[in-house]
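Journal club prep, notes for RB
We'll compare a predicted complex against what the paper describes. Inputs for the CO-5-methoxybenzimidazolylcobamide case:
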Amino acid sequence: MALEKARICLVNLERNCVLESVKSALESGVPASEIVLGSLSKAMEEIGRLYENGDYFIAELIEAASIFKEAMKILEPRLKEEASRLKTTRRARIVIGTVKGDVHDIGKTLVAIMLQAAGHEVIDLGVDVPAEKFVEAVEKYHPDIVGMSALLTTTARYMKTVIDELERKGLRRSLKIIIGGAATTSEFAREIGADGWAPNAIEAVKLVDSLMGIRDE
Ligand code: B1M
């Protein structure tokens, strides 16, 4: 009930209603991950459709993102608790960022939070990250994994540029590359030579664990 209410309120950009519904869903024992993935993320998809149809404009997208981020402040401690149960025996070091030309950061940050809570070390390069910055980070931190996020069809192609650049510098072989974001698919991941793709933050944690050879018991 509270889940559905949170979704509808976010679509209607009713901030207080979203925050209250999120609190009440948590109080009634709904997992934070279900609130984020099952309710708030669905609302964002609907908001995207409203934008596409010309019913919402950029101002509404900005407001929706701001409400989502405020809700995340309430949800983050519980999300971390939940993700810490996805136990990790082999800690990965992961460099993550939203690729050049793209400023969408909500999904990427959510993935980073969950990975960290699951016990991995995350270096978050932020948004609008050019290939050179990924290369620099790989040279500096020697991560096990590089994660890229893209929400725009136009910026998703840039992931290939990053992979090519890492290859050109001789850094690709020691690395696993994972990608995600609304503009990507598992086929696309294969096509550009990434090692894995995840549809959401929980699957991203599982993907990292499987790439690191960790099994869930
Ligand atoms: Co923009 N936007 N936006 N936007 N925006 C989309 C993505 C869009 C699909 C809306 C639409 O038209 N239906 C559309 C892209 C169309 C396309 O290219 N196919 C779009 C557009 C067009 C644009 C602009 C170009 C609009 C304009 O200016 N004319 C512009 C681009 C700016 C830029 O980046 N250069 C723009 C701007 C913005 C805002 C800044 C206003 C705002 C973002 C604010 C912010 O992030 N701080 C915004 C928003 C909010 C959206 C929608 C509505 C919501 C995105 C979101 O936060 N979702 C979005 C609609 C949609 O996605 N359907 C849309 C919630 C979030 C939890 O989900 O990010 O998908 P998501 O992350 C998920 C998974 O994808 C996955 O796990 C996450 C958590 O479960 N995942 C990974 C993500 N990264 C991963 C990485 C991994 C693994 C999994 O491994 C490394």
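Talking point for the session: Residues 93-211 form a domain with the Rossmann fold fold (CATH 3.40.50.280).
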